[in-house]
Amino acid sequence: MIRTYRFRVYPTDEQKAALSCSFGSVRYVYNAALAYRCKAYERRGESIYYYGTVKLLNKLKAAKPWLREAYSQCLQMLLRNLDAAFSNFFRNPETTGYPRFKKKDSAQSLQYPQGVKADFQRQMLYFPKTGWVSCVFHRRFKGGIRTVTLRKEKSGAYYASVLVDDGKNAEDIPAGRNVESESDVLGIDMGVKTLATCSDGTFYKNGKYLSESEKRLKKEQRNLSRKKKGSKNRAKQRIKVARIHERIANQRKDAIEKATAGIAGKSHAAVAVENLNIKGMQKNHHLAKTVSDASMSFFLTRLETKCISKGMHFVKVDRWFASSQTCSVCGFVNKETKDLRIREWECPECHTRHDRDANASLNIAREGYHLIARLPMDGGEVTPVETDKVDESAKAPKKPDVGETGRVPETSSLEAPRL
Ligand SMILES: [Zn+2]
Asked: Are 112 and 75 in contact (CB under 8 A)?
């Protein structure tokens, strides 16, 4: 199985200068290849694929000798990524944006299909053409290094995302556990402040310092808007803001990793979550912030991977199922609790007092159990039939997917054929 590890790396000033040249070359080639593909189609109706852009790269290299200073494999990988970006777009134009030109002032990245080595003793990573770079390995990994992405964030910090093949096959994953009763299913209600409320009474919160960072971000963003355009102070302030953005993203990610690991470590046979219509929710401006805050889709994918690797079943219950409005004791549907601000309520039928999230998690567990009970139990993943009645109007406008979860070049690399 392929796992991803992300490490902070600290290049020297000299290495930074060399990397900056490589970032430039990569950007140049990517933009040239993208323009080439677009123009060929517009002018001649001709579709250019990967090999067409490789020919272009060779011509470019002959004309611009400085391109040869960049690691050639990175340049080729880039063309693969561009190709993947186009196929993704054509396969799914509704949700995937048209490939875009790379900009100098956004985050920069280089992708190494091979040649990267790790030295845990010396805490260093080796990159072809750049050499050994200091790195903080917060954890060691076992297995062969596959693709490595070196990324320079807007804040100026460098990170390496290392894909590692741990050599384990899917067969090594434990067989699905038996679901015999409702209590074998752990229901999870996802929220904003409380990331996850579980039906066994436990809950996972966002990191302690997240709200502090968010307050600081607001303040520094206000400061930024006051700085004169084009001034040095504005540029400095920009970096400050980017740093806080990065910290917030890291804090969220950290909380999600901890919560999902905690849930996957439980002894339940199955985990049930709500299949959220995230796109529809983002359209609602009131909810937009909170949804992106909790990075729910990232939460779900991480949780699914971890649960399945532990032999737990993973089910998504219908997104239209009124988990927070139904009394988990008597089944009465209380429409008044639709309002998200209502955190606690008393059932008018059986007079049980409910915490909104805890009650929802119990309902999700029950619904999950019913779903599993109806399905053949042959182990592995259980995917319920989705009632896909998303109304077309709820589709959010296209947005490039570049949160901490969906960096386009990183995810597309997984699909690109290996060189
Ligand atoms: Zn009730």
From this structure: no
Residue 90 has a pLDDT of 85
pLDDT for position 22: 92
Are 230 and 150 within 8 A, CB to CB?
no
Q: What pLDDT is recorded for position 92?
A: 79
How far is ligand 1, taken at its centre, from the CA of residue 169, in Å?
47
Q: How many CA atoms lie within 13 A of 345 on its CB side?
A: 25
List CB contacts of 298: < 8 A, sequence separation 6 or more: 253, 256, 403, 404, 405
192 C-alpha to ligand 1 centroid (Å):
25
Fill in the amino acid letter for 49: Y
Tokens of 215: 């307050």
Residues, beta carbon < 5 Å, ion ligand 1: 327, 329-330, 332, 347, 349-350
Segments of the chain with pLDDT less than 50: 291, 377-419
Please list the active-site residues: 189, 274, 357
Say if residues 133 and 127 touch (Cβ distance below 8 Å).
yes
CA 366 – ligand 1 centroid, Å? 15
340 DSSP assignment:
T
Q: CA nearest 132: which of 141, 122, 140, 142?
A: 122
Q: Is 161 helix (H, G, I), strand (E, B) or coil?
A: strand
Residue 341 CA to ligand 1 centre (angstroms): 20
For the chain, give every domain's residue range. Answer: 2-167, 175-396
Per DSSP, the three-state class of 286 is helix
CA of 388 to the centre of ligand 1 (A): 29
**Is the entire prediction scored with pTM above 0.70?**
no
151 phi, psi to nearest 5 deg: -130, 135
- What value, to the nearest 5°, has the Cα angle with vertex 375 and ends 371 and 378? 130
pLDDT at 280: 53
